[in-house]
Amino acid sequence: MTAPDSGSLPTTHDAAALQAAWYPRWDANGVFAPDPARAGAEPFVIVMPPPNVTAVLHVGHGLNNTVQDVLIRWRRMAGDDALWVPGTDHAGIATQNVVEKQLVAEGLTRFDLGREPFVARVAEFVDKTGGAILEQLKAIGASADWTRTAYTFSPALSTAVREAFVRLHEDGLVYRGKRVIHWCPRCGTSLSDEEAEFTDTAGSLYHLRYPLADDPSQGITVATTRPETMLGDVAVAVHPEDDRYRALVGRALALPLTGVRIPVVADAYTDPAFGSGAVKITPAHDANDFEVGKRHGLAMPVVLDAEGVVREGEDAAGRVPAALAGLDRFAARAAIVEQLRAAGALVKVEPHPHSVRHCYRCDTVVEPRLSNQWFVHMRPLADKALAALRGGQLRILPERWEAVYVNWLEGIRDWNISRQIWWGHRVPVWYCEAPGCGQAPVVSRTDVAACPACGGAVRQDADVLDTWFSSWLWPFSTLGWPDAGHADLRRYYPGDVLVTAPEILFFWVSRMVMAGCWFLGETPYHTVYLHGTVRDMQHRKMSKSLGNGIDPLDVVRQYGADALRWTMVAGLGLGVDVMLDPTDLDKSFAPGRNFCTKLWNIGRFLLSRVGAEPVTPVAALPAEALTAADAWILTRLDEAIRECDAALGPARPAVDRTWTEAERGRGLRLSEYAEAARRFVWNELADWYLESVKPRLAADGADREVARAVLAHAFDGALRLLHPIVPFITEALWQQLPGTTAGTFLAQAPWPAPRAEPVGDGAPFALAQEAVVAIRQLRAEYGVPAGSWVEGVLVAPAALVAALTAQLPMVAALARTRLLVAEAAPGGAAAQALLRDGVEVVIPLAGMVDVEKERARLSGELADLERHLAALEGRLANEKFVAKAPPALVEAERAKAAEWRVRCGQLATKLAALDA
RNA sequence: GGGCGAAUAGCUCAGCUGGUCAGAGCACCUGUCUUACACACAGGACGUCGGGGGUUCGAAUCCCUCUUCGCCCACCA
Fold first, then answer.
1. Residues 6+ positions from A123 with CB-CB distance below 8 Å
2. A616, A662, A717, A837 - which has most CB atoms within 10 Å?
3. pLDDT bracket for residue A833 (50, 70, 90)
């Protein structure tokens, strides 16, 4: 630990050095882990949205984790037992895809390796390269408890996954069923509804004519966007009330190309207004058709295989002409359309923009496909999650997302949790291999080696679970669940805030709430904070494929982690997107860079003046020793603290983990918090107090000590307020403050509180500020060189002369104007004077009046004032206003009008004097 | 097709429950290397708060409508 020595601060702010100096010290001194000494404190828990284990840090992670770090540092300082649990996600499909790509480069597929070796290879890859992102998070200052780093595929979390699956099965909510699901032919697996994302596509609508089997002169025209599926058609459906087709219901049609006979059925699913009002039914390759097929007991021939290739699958014998077999689905579409055209069955093709589902991992067009999958029946879980929001155990900020959450949960559909990939948690179900044994599938928390009935061989279900099936347990699986007695689980569950982006509200956020409510009976957090997305100047989301990304580590290298953090937090209105220009980092990160430089300079100068000797605590200073400036800055600090507290809001519901209506929408306004702290340290402490206090610090004596004490105190407060946002600079500066004890950290220092019994107020100094501003304006107006001293007379009403006189040296120094103070009867003899907003009057600086300029200025000002006065008088003459407006307001308006009338008189007199 | 949100200074946005609310940052203009800071300081200019109605003594702030964007959901074959 370096001894406090302000002389040791380098003149320029070296962000890299600060980061290298402080992060390891925090880590080594246990700043990030919960403090055993805080066992009696309230826990405050955030679980980190686990990045994919193979991910590299992008600016979205940067934003997300900065927000979390700001919150956790804030609560840590506020005295909570703060815990931020970090970790990574094994990211089933995504990670498998990465390794499969490597294999492709080697000319191999996963099937060449086989399941076990492939999984081993992925695990090895993850071991070697995975989790790098967590190291990168340290570079931006993330103060997570790294001793608790978790991984969704660790043995401990695998136990949790099995427990969850088995428990849901016991609850009757897990089932296996044959359904049409979203299938990614490239990944070779099913996807959940959420994983199959819509993309607007300029498709075509093909109108096909299906003739009656026994009377080809008649027929029905159907419309489809996927003509290749016609091979799997088993019916044509028309609306029961549709008179056009009523006579045809029950008749047989001959499928073109193959001649397969299919019936016309009546089903209300059909919309008579769409297309021809008749729809072809392909139960194996369309979820709706599947429902129709079930209703009518139709066959469900599969004509596309797992790779999306046309092929006779289950129930499809004789349905695929040899010429088409083996064609990829898109090649098949073209071929079939051609053949239909040749056969005269293609009525027309029209452009048809529509939404087509794509795989969220590889962007391949999803193929609906009939297959056996595992599902979770979500209704009962969703009901609990809805109740939690409605009951106030959960809130979502910004609140408008609550409606989206409710809407989704109300319409919840069963969750397809099985995936036909290899990288992930195996479905914990075993089947007896012995023919005729009759043993039902065994769902088990532990591996099953032999059939419990016949003792014969068993095989485990080949599927793995959706990666989100482990993620949704994250808030408690990371804390020791399912071990109900685990110390972490008991102490830190439920947690507090979840910080994430709206994109995964359904994927993850809602499901965590459901899991928490279902398995533990409590929501995993009381607040969901949804931040915006980082976008470029064209408002496009930053992405690798667009090449418009920003590498946070680049920013850290160029401007420092603090500058990165400041820029993001200061621009982070609640739920508002953050716009950054990837082509101009200098401009994008100017706010953070400038602020950090300024803060450093403030600290460097202030510390050099305060020196290293101990200072008197502010509370111990005699009230009468405080100057107007001292009283003012202490008042401003109190106010800044209040503003920061108000912006950050309640850390948790006050009572019973339940939000009241009054609390619900409050807090987490990070940009407001940043602005309040910035204004204090820059516009108040540096621009005014520090400037005003320079002469006092240069002199010797008791007043110097008072100034030192107040300065140190105010800066200490500022550093505490700012630390959560810019931890490195604030820590480095704070360590140099005379009051700092060696071995303590700002990161663990108490969050400031406003004084309980303020001494003095800010009014007298505010008066001096007005005088200074007025003089500066005059100087600028008359082009007085900034460095030169001039003389002037400050004129003020008698009541204020005393207050101003005491501050005259300070005002003079700040305005570089030697001043006399003179008394004037309000509105009277000082008619010559230039008035500015109220009380103080500054006589034009001797000999510097430019008559023309002054006349123009005065008449302009007079015209403005007269206009405003007329409006104000009009309002006061309005009887309704006087009758209905609050009396206090009316009084204030009257006073204002009187003041303005006087002002107008003064200006007019002055103009006249000028002309004379 | 439903639902939600946004339109305020050149840009990105604050302005919560109607009465100093017309603001901040960046950009811009004019001075200044005033011995902490030119990534700064001082002073300035800039908006009839998307259009149109309405409620009210009074609206950027509430209601209706139009226009333009954005987001979410949805089984338009």
1. none
2. A717
3. very low
Residue whose structure tokens are 């032919």: A185
Q: Are strands A235-238 and A261-266 parallel, antiparallel or unpaired?
A: parallel
Distance A889 CA to B60 C1' (A): 21
Q: What is the separation of C-alpha A165 from the centre of its chain, rounded to a whole number of angstroms? A: 30
A598 touches strand B (CB under 7 A): yes
Region of A8 please: left (phi>0), alpha (psi -120 to 50) or beta.
alpha
pLDDT for position A850? 57
CA distance A478 to A492: 10
**Average pLDDT value for chain A:** 86
C-beta within 7 A of nucleic chain B, residues 612-671 of A: 669, 671
Is the pLDDT confidence value at A831 over 50? no
User: Mind listing the pLDDT tens digit for each residue in A398-428?
Assistant: 888 888 888 888 888 899 899 998 999 999 9
Greatest CA separation for chain A: 120
Q: For the purposes of burial, counting CB atoms within 10 Å of the CB of A403, is it exposed (0-12), middle (13-18) or buried (19 or more)?
A: exposed
SS3 A420: coil
The answer to whether A514 and A194 have CB atoms below 8 angstroms apart is no
Round to a whole number and report the distance in Å from the CA of A715 to the C1' of B40: 20
Q: Which nucleotides of B are covered by protein (CB under 7 A)?
A: 2-5, 11-15, 19-20, 24-27, 30-34, 36-37, 39-44, 56-58, 70-77
Most confident of A1-10, A215-224, A845-854: A215-224
Distant-in-sequence contacts of A403-412, Cβ < 8 A, 24+ apart: A404/A502, A404/A505, A405/A505, A405/A509, A405/A510, A408/A505, A408/A506, A408/A510, A409/A382, A409/A385, A409/A510, A410/A382, A410/A386, A412/A378, A412/A379, A412/A382
> Model confidence over A847-865: pLDDT tens digits?
445 566 666 666 766 766 6
A53-63: average pLDDT: 87
Q: Which helix (H) or strand (E) holds A178?
A: strand A174-184
Which of A357, A229, A227, A253 has its CA nearest to residue A302? A229
Pairwise CA distance, residues A333 & A205, whole Å: 12
Residue A417 in contact with residue A210, Cβ under 8 Å?
Answer: no
| A506 φ/ψ angles, rounded to the nearest 5 degrees | -90, -45
Å from A530 (CA) to B58 (C1')? 37
Q: Which long-range contacts (CB under 8 A, 24 or more apart) does A170-175 make?
A: A171/A380, A172/A377, A173/A376, A173/A377, A173/A378, A173/A380, A173/A381, A174/A374, A174/A375, A174/A376, A174/A377, A174/A417, A174/A443, A175/A374, A175/A375, A175/A377
CA(A364)–C1'(B51) in Å? 44
Amino acid making up residue A882? V
Predicted model pTM: 0.89
Lookup: nucleotide whose C1' is closest to A597 CA: B39
Closest CA to A498 of A523, A481, A534: A523
- Measured in angstroms, what separates residue A687's CA from nucleotide B35's C1'? 17
**In degrees to the nearest 10, what's the CA dihedral of A722, A727, A729, A730?**
50
Query: Interface pTM (ipTM) of the complex?
Result: 0.91
A597 touches strand B (CB under 7 A): yes
